[in-house]
C-alpha cells in the first residue's frame, strides 16, 4: 500500500530530478558533438577557462555577501518593527518585491542603474548629491579659437603664449595674447550654455588694471571676424581667469555678465593668463554602476532588495515565538537593549537564522535571471556566474553541451554540502 501511494511521487522525482542528474553526468564525459568520449576532459577545460574561473569567483562573492546581507537586514527589520504601530505596513512594503518576478526585477534595476542621470534613478540621486557640493564647469568642452594665443598647458587648462603687460595707464598693452587687449576668444561652446548670455562687450581700460573679454567667437549664420567681438557674439560669464608667474597663481578674476574681467596690474603685469581646466570639465554623469568594477555588487544589491523581505518575514515569525518572559527578565536585571538583542534574541533565533541563511545560499548558487538581464554586454563577462556560464556554454555561441553538463554537475556538487547541512539540521529538530 505504501509503494502504491509513493509510486506517483517516485515517478515524478525520477523523471524530473534523477534522470536529468544521471544524464548530465553521462553527457559531461563526451565532447561537444556527443560522439567522442573525453572522460574528465570537460572538467579540466572548465577549470582552465578564464570565463568559468571568473564565474566561480563571482559565485563565491554571491554566496558570502548576498545571503549574509539579506539575513542581517531581515533580522534588523524584524526586530526594529516589532514594537511600532505601523510595523505591519512596513513589513508589507519590504516583502512586496517578492511578488515581482526575477525578470521584472532585472528590468527595473537595469533602468535604475542606467548611466544617464535622466533615466537612471541611482545616478540621478548621485549626481544631485555631487552637484550640491561641487560646482559644475560653466562651459564644458569649450576650447580657444585656433591661433588666438592660447595653448594647452596640461590637465585641460589653457595658457597664453606671451605675458600680458600693463601700459602707462595701467590697462593691458598691445603685447597681450590677442592683439590690443588680453581678450580670450573661445569656440566649441554649447548653445545651451550661452542661450541666455548677454552680448560680449569690449573691455574698457581701467587704471591699475589689466582688462580683457572672454566670449564665444562665433556668429550664427556665418560672417564675423575671428578674434574680434562682432555684433551679438555671446559673452562667457563666470569664467575663471588666472594670472600665473613661475608656475604660481598671483591673481585671479571671474568674467562678468558681459564677458569682461579685470586683474590688478601690480600683480598680473608680466604674467601669463591661464584658463583653468575647471572651466571646461565635462559635466559629472555619476557612477558607472554596470561597469566591470561595480556590476556584481550592483546586481547583488538588487537581489538583496528582493529577498530581504523574505528573510524578514521568516525571522519575524521566529521572533514571535521567543518567550517574552526571558526578554523582560533580562531588562529587569539591568540588561540594555543591545545586550538583550545580542545575548538573548539572536541565540534564540539561531535556528531560524540558519534556515534563512542556508535557503538563500542555495538560491544564490543558482542565480541566473538577474545577472543575465541587468548586466550589459560589455560587463557580462565580469558579472558572469556558473548558472549563466552553463547556459552560455550549452546554448550560446559555442554550443558545447559536454562542457555545459560538466558545469551543471560541478554546480550540483557545490549545492550538495549546503543541502547536507540543511538535512542534518532538520533531523536534529525532529529528534527534539
Automatic annotation (TrEMBL):
Supply the CDD domains for this chain: TM_PBP2
Among the record's GO biological process terms, what is one?
transmembrane transport
Where located?
Cell membrane
Start and end residues of each stretch annotated as Disordered: 137-156
Superkingdom, natural source: Bacteria
- Please report which protein family the annotation says this sequence is part of: Belongs to the binding-protein-dependent transport system permease family.
TM spans (from-to): 60-80, 92-113, 304-322, 348-375, 403-423
Which Pfam family is one of this chain's hits? BPD_transp_1
Question: Which key words tag this protein in UniProt?
Answer: Cell membrane, Membrane, Transmembrane, Transmembrane helix, Transport
Q: What is this protein called?
A: ABC transporter permease
UniProt membrane topology term:
Multi-pass membrane protein
Q: Which GO terms describe its cellular component?
A: plasma membrane
Could you tell me which InterPro entries the record lists for this protein? Ig-like_fold, MetI-like, MetI-like_sf, UgpAE/MalFG_permease
> Where does the record place the ABC transmembrane type-1 domain?
56-422
**Gene3D superfamilies of this UniProt entry?**
Immunoglobulins, MetI-like
